[in-house]
Amino acid sequence: MLRGPETANAPFFAARGGNGAAIAAIALLSSCASRSHIEPTSPTPAPAAASAVTTATAPEPPLPTPETSATAATAEPPNSPRCAAEASALSRACCSLASTLGGRVLGATVAAGPVEGGAAPARAADLSTRIAVCVARAVGGGARPVTSPLSFEQARKAAAPGHPLLYLTAQLAQGRLRVAAAAHAIAAGRNPSDSAFARAEASAELDGEIGAYLPRIAVAASRIERAVAPSDIVALACGDVAGNGQAEIVAVGRHKVQIGRAGDGRFSPRVETQWSSLSPVAPSPLREPLGSAVIVRGSGVLVGISDRAEGFLLSPALAKVRVLGAPIPLGDDFGCLSRSGIALGAEGPCGRRGQHTEELPVVDAFASGTVVDAEGRSTAVLATRDPATRRVSLRRGAGTTTLAEAGGALAVADLDLDGQPELLASVDTDKPEEDAVVISTWARDGTIAERLRVPVKDGVRAIAVCPAEDVRMAPIVAATTGGLWLVR
After folding, report:
1. How far apart are CA 330 and CA 303, in angstroms?
2. Burial of 362 (C-beta count, 10 Å sphere; 0-12/13-18/19+)
3. Nearest C-alpha neighbor of 345 from the set 401, 302, 387, 376
4. Of 188, 133, 184, whose CA–CA distance to 160 is shortest?
């Protein structure tokens, strides 16, 4: 059974296929950046003695001061457009906390305790600091982060009198970074109230930003499971479709669109709909259908297939939300594709809401998405296959490279959370028994190096990558003529 994140802010991984063609997308963007220097305060003065008899004690070590941030006059409120537009895993979690707490914590001292969990971060103190800075930035109103992990008792003493103390506790578990915030009132005597006057919780899926603080993750297959599923699947997606914190598989076949889970040896749909109820048949369908499925955070799933005239945004219950105006969606960030001869070509926006698509050559397979690096910077990645040469062209920002050849199933993902994209591709072969999922890393120096090859004797038709389930390689789902293969 696929078990995924526990909030609606899971990353989406999508697959698009035609004779195995696939798209995988990751939407994780920038987060908060911390400052590099802070002056310590003097030790907290001891309270006055109750009698003439005193006991000499060693002075407490200095505590860090809260970092200076924007003043209340210039700080942005939690519901500002900037905060609402945040798209990285950590920054979305920070904005969720700020939104829940509202204006009650403006001007707070924000301190974080050590990160807990089964997988100890390699840079635990730095991760605590990054969380505190990110939350203070989202809260705004003069909130000031403390740039080192503190216990609650230490945070009491570091807090500014007369301002709230926002104390954060974080835990790494089940492929998520969970953050809980508790706001305490600090009186002039630096004594917080016994109980918090406001609380909030949020979580973030793991990505290259958070992965920079984690132990190194190996790209390795330790377990392969097989599940009975329809044999006509041409596109896959995997992620939190319903916003309930559970990862599900979206399977686009020639006759149905299904959403469900794989476990106990079979794919069990939660909901399904017939293509005949969605769209009329395309004027000239391709002999080998090309399809796509892209999970849109909080909205549902974009689906399309060259057998049909239109693509759609469907709700988590697979009800029509929007007609796309073109059959094959790349995603809201990339637009839609339509038929060009025996393959696909760029058409433009997915209806009125889509963005303009760059002019692409004719392709018969593609993969697109966004990866995030250790500093929270995002970069769009695009992979396309030339139907004549079988060459795969990759573009990341201004950088480009070419893979000599690959099969018709492609996906893009950061499997090991190191901020560098992996290209997942099938083998260019007509013999199913020779097929495999080949995983290569596109390194920062521009080279492409094969990391792992998983033989798939049933032949690969589509590939998708699911959200991380733990601090290990993200699960891979492959559609074959014999059903689904789950690689962990």
Report:
1. 9
2. middle
3. 387
4. 188
Phi, psi of 172 (to 5 degrees): -100, 120
Radius of gyration of the chain from its Cα atoms, rounded to whole angstroms: 25
- The three-point CA angle 46-67-213 to 5° equals 110
Q: Could you count the other beta carbons within 10 Å of the beta carbon of residue 64?
A: 19
262 burial level (CB within 10 Å; 0-12, 13-18, 19+): buried
Contacts of 421 (CB under 8 A, 6+ apart): 369, 371, 381, 396, 412, 413, 414, 441, 442
Contact 130, 34 (CB under 8 A): yes
CB atoms within 10 A of CB 27: 26
pLDDT tens by residue, 27-42: 322 233 332 222 232 3
Please list the residues that pair with 464 across neighbouring strands.
Answer: 477
Query: Distances from the Cα of 393 to the Cαs of 12, 34, 206, 365, 445, in angstroms?
Result: 23, 36, 27, 11, 16
What is d(CA 248, CA 239) in angstroms, rounded to the nearest whole number? 5
State whether residue 47 is helix, strand or coil: coil
Report phi then psi at 409, rounded to 5. Answer: -120, 120
Question: Is residue 411 within 8 Å of residue 461, measured between CB atoms?
Answer: no
Q: Strands 165-173, 116-117: parallel, antiparallel or unpaired by DSSP?
A: parallel
Q: How many CB atoms are closer than 10 A to CB 338?
A: 17
Residues whose CB is less than 8 angstroms from the CB of residue 36 and which lie 6 or more positions away in sequence, other chains included: none
Tell me how crowded residue 408 is: count the other CB atoms within 10 A of its CB.
24
CA distance 296 to 239: 9
Dihedral sign of CA atoms 82, 80, 113, 62 in order? positive
Helix (H/G/I), strand (E/B), else coil: 145: strand
Return the percentage of the chain with pLDDT > 90, whole number: 56
CA distance 15 to 329: 11
Whether residue 320 contacts residue 312, with contact meaning beta carbons closer than 8 Å, is answered with yes
Q: E-assigned strands of 373-488?
A: 378-385, 392-396, 399-403, 410-413, 422-425, 436-442, 448-455, 460-465, 476-480, 483-487
pTM of the model: 0.80
pLDDT level of residue 60 (50, 70, 90 thresholds): very low
Residue matched to tokens 């369908």: 285
- pLDDT tens-place string over residues 277-312: 999 999 888 888 989 998 887 789 999 999 999 999
